[in-house]
Amino acid sequence: MENAGEFKLIECGGTPYEIGLQWGKACKENILATTRNVIGTMVSFSNLSREQVLSIATEHLPHIERFDPYLVEIMRGQADGTGIPFEEIVTLKCMTDFTAQAITGVHTLCTAFAATGSATAGGQTLLGQNIDFVPGSTIDFLKIHHNDGLVQFVLCFNNWGDYTLSSAGFGICLNATFAREHEFTLPVSAYIPKVMRQKTIDGALALLKQTARGGGYYQLADGSGQICGIESTHDDFEIMHPQRNILLHSNHYITERFRARDTAAAVQPDSYDRLDTISSLFTRHYGHITPETAMEILADHDHYPNSICRHIDESVPISSSTLASFVMVPGEGAIYIARGNPCENGFVRYQF
Questions:
Q1: How far is the first Cα of the chain from the last one, in angstroms, to the nearest whole number?
Q2: Burial category of 314 from C-beta neighbours within 10 Å (exposed 0-12, middle 13-18, buried 19 and up)
Q3: Is this model's pTM higher than 0.90 or not?
Q4: Torsions phi, psi of 6, nearest 5?
Q5: Residues 348, 335: contact at Cβ < 8 Å?
Q6: CA 43, CA 278: separation in Å to the nearest integer?
């Protein structure tokens, strides 16, 4: 495959404010574009004025400050680094929670996997997914050095979602799931950063159990072979466990008691096909799965264009495409990333 381009790696470090300031300055163009697009979408789908949207979103700031003042300092640094008002940075953190109706109208979202032990070549743990959303969405790639010694590789989607590999030896994947009821107090993007600053996967999962409400699926894996996932609704959660050392997910609920509330059959029907496809491919390669095998699976075109490797579907009003693809190897502290569709662009390896 020919590599048409790769993400620019932005390095940040210091206090949380200094991290945010460096982040904001380096990613100013993308954050400005995201602010215009996302807040515009919030206004459009809520039938509220811009001022009303900002006011409602910032009502959640006290909850964020109580839960993670470290994150709030990063956000203040971002605001100063970009010149964007702080309340607009806060509003971006409420993106999926505030615009669930808009996002459920986007055909085809993400497909994720984790595998270890008997499923992979040499027993190494692999974790990855495609990040699929509407064209024009932004992704920034950062290497963040925290003052306590923790280092993270972060693929930051729309200055909202942090797909993170931690030097503590574990990583996270994120999938959108939507129940018919949708409420939130603490935005999703306000609890994932703290989850990924934990020192162990057990600490990260414990924090997710406390905070994962409002919708979404989160998948964790570490270098020792521990894999787990958590499906959430606004008032409940369920821990997911691997089967034969493999855990796979797309955009519908697998937990039986959540299925009656699930909107996927109506708005994300391809989610079922994508999960069936990735399950079949992992079964076919069972015992021999390498990072390269995972990359090939993420480039699969079964049910094209509504495939694992997503391409624009001209037959629907709002279609997504694959913006990035990644495979993490937590035991090596390594992440392979393709910018755009993995069928067209090569993977670049980064390591702590």
A1: 25
A2: exposed
A3: yes
A4: -135, 165
A5: no
A6: 36
